[in-house]
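Predict the 3D structure for this chain.
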Amino acid sequence: MTYPGTAPQAFRGERLGLPAQGRGSLATSGPRLGALVVDVVASTLVAALFVQAFRSPGGDLASHLPQSWSLIPLGIDYVLGVLFAGRTLGMYFTGLRLIRVDGDKPVGPARVIVRTALLFLLVPAVIWDKDGRGMHDRLTATAVVRS
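Done. Predicted structure below.
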């Protein structure tokens, strides 16, 4: 549906001034999901190492799993990865990076922290706009693009 006075966009990201394809174009959901899976698996493995190192002897299987502790390395991966490299570990392996759509500036700490917190809530990440950006990207004026 188009509104009066607006033309339909020809491709995802056109409204943001991004190219239709190639480097700098909006990432599709497949690579984004792949990046998230890599980040979640890596953070779970890191958390499992710490849980095993500090666990008490005995106990059942559930006491040996990282549970919510994996959110700590996941948050560190997102915040420090984006601040220092413009991407998380998973984004690196899937050829993606995070940019600001409101100017050619680096994504600052406040945006990264808010975006990560919203991503942890999951609901903003699964509500997408016409461009395929999640609510967490829209609220922080960011976009995941091909690198």
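Residues 29-54 form the longest helix (26 residues).
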